[in-house]
Amino acid sequence: MTTITIDELRKVVALSDLPGQNLQWILDHSEYHEYSEGGLIAKYGDPAEVMWFLLEGKISFYMNINGRQVYYYTFENSSAIGGVGGLMPYSRMKTYPGYSYANGHVKLLRLHKDYFLELEQLNPDFIQKLIGYMTERARSFATTKLQYEKVNALGNLAAGIAHELNNPAAAINSTSNELSKRLDRNYELTEKLIQCNMTTKQIQNIRALVQKKETESTNLKKRSVMQRLGNEDEIEEWLDDKNVPESGGLAETFSEFGISTEELEKLSANVEKNAFISVVQWLDNLLSSYKIIKDLGEASSRISHLVGAIKSHVHMDQSNELQPTDIHQDIENTLTLLGYKLREKSITVKKIFCESVPEIPAYVGELNQVWTNIIDNAIFALQKNGEIVIETTCNSEYMNVKIIDNGSGISPEILSRIFDPFFTTKKMGEGTGIGLDLVQRIIKRHNGNIKVDSRPGRTEFSIDLPTTIKKD
Questions:
Q1: How is residue 95 annotated by DSSP?
Q2: Judging by beta carbons within 10 Å of its beta carbon (0-12, 13-18, 19+), is residue 8 exposed, middle or buried?
Q3: Considering only 65-74, 75-84, 294-303, which range has the smallest mean pLDDT?
Q4: What pLDDT, on the 0 to 100 scale, is given for residue 344?
Q5: Which of 61, 136, 210, 363 could serve as 73's disulfide partner, Cβ 3.0–4.6 Å?
Q6: Average pLDDT of 348-373?
């Protein structure tokens, strides 16, 4: 059996200044263990019952996160860690939250928790020292957890933005291919018009009709499905009477642009009978091409809008200084970035904004984290077809923002704890990464305040922000 000397034990930083009799007591009550590289020292879910002192090597700790092992911490014999780990006196840990592996050849002593009370009676100051190491370890774990959450939140947001960008990008690709086909078809149809001996005046009349419909299309009143189908049926029947092939597709285009049977009748009267079919096909192709170009513009505008929202949300190209900001626009940008989550649950967002909104001096990037966190929490709490209401009121001194959801509410048991550091009801990776404690700190940094009221069917976060603020 390996014998450990007091001098060897004294090399453990946490034990370096202990009296010899204390060190001898630890040797007498501990068990010695050795582990080769990669050896399993502690397993997730096993009872946490021993404190260990690291005599040689290092120990790598991997937190169990939703069944995955994520690197969190390395225990070593340093001033910050003390060469001590496992279950510490006064720790509330019941089971191991992850896996510990030997990093190199590891030698350690294991002291069972049954001896903690005797150790405290032997040297109370040493127990306080151990609590200090435990506090530092908890702080390091919390920091790692926060960083991991932020990376996951960034990944989730990036995936959502990629999804948002993919839709208009795919639309651009699809419609550009269709436009290419329409342009090729335009050559064929133009040749047919020339063969029909169309005059310049006749072509100008058709072009004038197209330009008129292009202008009027943006102002067309929205019709019900029945109205639209009825109009299409009327046009299709009229085209069938004229023996025009593929009348269904033509009727859909003409109806969409508001071309009436009266206008088609007038067009028919101004061209020769054998030319009319070529004319309506050419007209259909021209109007369809215009619609495709309009769709391309809308898709590219959607991408530009998303990029603008991202840039504004993260406050790119700006230093972390107080900047005047439009809270309404910041909230709109946040809703844009979380749009994919809102659509997944078919959530309705109702906005009741004050009219004369003042620009608030703010650390804009930080304040945008607040809107993201609270709105994301509301989305998380809602079922399908839920509702979020965002209401603002303004006066000369303060702007109040209320974010209300009609979810199941926050239980009274945890309502008082939601602003506690690192408190969450979500699994790791599901949150925004900043937590309501940081939300509260950001609001306080702006000399504002935040309150929450919750009951089944209504949870309200109310935030007051001053219209003027003194810089820290």
A1: B
A2: middle
A3: 294-303
A4: 87
A5: 61
A6: 87
Residue by residue, DSSP assigns 123-184 as: -HHHHHHHHHHHHHHHHHHHHHHHHHHHHHHHHHHHHHHHHHHHHHHHHHHHHHHHHHHHHH
Owning domain of residue 223: 161-306
* CA–CA gap between residue 460 and residue 335 (Å, rounded): 17
Residues 418-427: pLDDT tens digits? 877 655 665 5
pLDDT band at 202 (very low <50, low <70, confident <90, very high): confident
Report the C-alpha gap between 307 and 35 in whole angstroms. Answer: 53
Show the tokens assigned to 377.
């929490």
Q: Are residues 332 and 278 in the same domain?
A: no
Q: What is the pLDDT of residue 428?
A: 47
Give the number of other Cβ atoms within 10 Å of residue 285's Cβ. 20
> Tokens in use for 298?
């809308």
pTM of the model: 0.50
114 and 60 Cβ atoms separated by less than 8 Å: no
Q: Can you tell me the distance from the alpha carbon of 155 to that of 292, in angstroms, rounded to the nearest whole number?
A: 34
Do residues 432 and 369 lie in contact, with contact meaning Cβ atoms separated by under 8 Å?
A: yes
Tally of domains in the chain: 3
Instruction: Please indicate, yes or no, whether residues 56 and 193 belong to a single structural domain of this protein.
Output: no
Given 63, 93, 122, the domain boundary residue is: 122
Contact 61, 103 (CB under 8 A): no
Highest mean pLDDT among 103-107, 194-198, 367-371: 103-107
CATH of the domain at 425: 3.30.565.10
Is 39 or 266 the better-scoring residue by pLDDT? 39
Q: Structure tokens of 152? A: 């996951």
Structural domain includes residue 149? no
